[in-house]
Amino acid sequence: MTVRPYRPSDLPEITELFYDTVHTVNAGDYTPEQLDAWADGAPDTAEWGRTLAEHTAFVAMEGEILAGFGDMDASGYLDRLYVHKDFQRRGIASALCGALEATVGTERIVTHASITARPFFESRGYRLVRERRVVRHGVPMTNYRMEKRRPGPAQNA
Asked: Is the pLDDT of residue 17 over 90?
């Protein structure tokens, strides 16, 4: 596996991976109605392309296959982290998350984790801030605000 910066030409594979991952990997924790509201198969590709270009974004490649992606903004908000359904539990999310965490100089990293992803983030030192009830396309679902605090420069000295 290799991790490299996102390229605009990755966008079609990324949006397909997002849809497929949500509808398979997250299917054990969310209802079909919630999965459809989360990933309806018609992403706003202009918006996705804009935010991926503005954020620090990486993709993980297994040979020629895009096996995962993630992005984080300059404030330390980890926006998206998804791994292809056929490449789960191979260290891809850890590699992407590690690369993203290393790019920001913020003391705190924040994410909104799904029920499915919460254990992964907890294993990386993120703590639960609060459970959230979000509504997408009129459908309520649960996720978690999680954060990871990193030692500041004074604490490292």
From this structure: yes
